[in-house]
C-alpha cells in the first residue's frame, strides 16, 4: 500500500470518527429537549410539564442574569472611558502649569522694567513702548494657553486667590488696597496667588 493510500485511509477514518462524535452530540441535545424521550414522560404517558416549566424558568433566569451582567459591564466600560477622557483633558489643561509658573517671573520683570522706565524722567519713550509691547504680547501668549491675570485692586479680599502680606491703612476693611504682585490662574485653577495689602 502506498503512502497516498495510507493518508487517504487515515483521513477517511478521522472524518468518520468526527461525524460519529457530531451525531452523538446531536442525539444527546435532541434527547434533552424531545418530549418523546422516556425520562421526560410520566408513567401514564403524559408529558412532564412541570419539568419543562422549571427548565424554562431556569433558562430565563440565566438569560436575565446574563443581560444584567452585560448592562453592568457596558456601564462600567462607559464610565471608565469618561474618566479617561476627563483625566486626559485635565492633564492636557494643566500640563503647562510648571512651565507657565516659571514664565510668570519674566512677566514680573517686564512689569518692573515698565515701572522703572516710567519713573525715570530721562528715559527714552521708544524703550518704554518696546517693553510695554513685549509685556502685552507675552501676556497674550499666556492667555491663549489659559493663563489669566488676578489683579484684585479695590476688590474684596479672597484668601483663595489672594495672599495678604501687609496692611493698607487707607483701604476699606477687607478690601485690597495695594497689589504688590499680581496673581495668575491656569484654566481656572490658581497658579499663583496675588500678593496684596488689605485694609483693616
Describe, in plain words, how this protein is organized in 3D.
The chain has 200 residues and is of the alpha+beta class. Helices cover 60% and strands 14% of the residues. It folds into 2 domains: 3-92; 96-198, Head domain of nucleotide exchange factor GrpE (Nucleotide Exchange Factor Grpe, Chain A, domain 2, Roll). It is built from 4 helices and 6 strands. It is elongated, with a radius of gyration of 41 Å. The model has no long low-confidence stretch (mean pLDDT 84).
Feature tags:
single chain; 200 residues; alpha+beta; Nucleotide Exchange Factor Grpe, Chain A, domain 2; 4 helices; 6 strands
Assigned CATH superfamily of the largest domain: Head domain of nucleotide exchange factor GrpE
Described by strand count, sense and barrel closure, the largest sheet is: 3 strands, antiparallel
Low-confidence stretches: none
**CATH class label of the largest domain:** Mainly Beta
Mean pLDDT: 84
Question: Number of domains in the coordinates?
Answer: 2
**Alpha-carbon distance between the termini?**
113 Å
In CATH, the architecture of the largest domain is Roll
Total DSSP helices: 4
What structural class do helix, strand and pairing data support? alpha+beta
Content of β-strand: 5-15%
- Trace the largest sheet across and list its strands: 1-4-5
- Count the strands? 6
Globally, the shape reads elongated
Q: Helices and strands, in N-to-C order?
A: HHHHEEEEEE
Specify the helix fraction band. 55-70%
Q: Kindly report the CATH topology of the largest domain.
A: Nucleotide Exchange Factor Grpe, Chain A, domain 2
Looking at how many chains there are and whether they match, the oligomeric state comes to single chain
Gyration radius over CA: 41 Å
Amino acid at each position: 500500500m502506498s503512502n497516498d493510500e495510507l493518508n487517504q485511509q487515515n483521513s477517511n477514518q478521522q472524518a468518520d470518527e468526527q461525524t460519529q462524535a457530531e451525531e452523538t452530540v446531536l442525539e444527546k441535545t435532541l434527547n434533552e429537549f424531545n418530549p418523546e424521550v422516556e425520562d421526560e414522560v410520566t408513567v401514564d404517558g403524559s408529558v412532564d410539564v412541570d419539568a419543562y416549566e422549571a427548565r424554562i424558568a431556569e433558562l430565563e433566569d440565566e438569560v436575565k442574569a446574563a443581560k444584567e451582567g452585560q448592562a453592568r459591564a457596558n456601564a462600567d466600560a462607559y464610565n471608565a472611558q469618561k474618566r479617561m477622557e476627563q483625566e486626559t483633558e485635565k492633564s492636557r489643561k494643566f500640563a503647562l502649569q510648571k512651565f507657565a509658573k516659571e514664565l510668570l517671573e519674566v512677566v514680573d520683570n517686564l512689569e518692573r522694567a515698565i515701572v522703572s522706565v516710567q519713573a525715570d524722567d530721562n528715559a527714552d519713550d521708544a524703550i518704554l513702548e518696546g517693553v510695554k509691547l513685549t509685556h502685552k504680547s507675552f501676556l497674550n501668549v499666556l492667555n491663549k494657553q489659559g493663563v489669566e491675570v488676578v489683579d484684585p485692586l479695590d476688590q474684596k479680599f479672597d484668601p483663595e486667590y489672594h495672599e495678604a502680606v501687609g496692611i493698607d491703612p487707607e483701604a476699606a476693611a477687607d478690601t485690597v488696597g495695594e497689589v504688590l504682585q499680581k496673581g495668575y490662574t491656569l484654566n481656572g485653577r490658581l497658579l499663583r496667588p496675588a500678593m496684596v495689602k488689605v485694609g483693616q
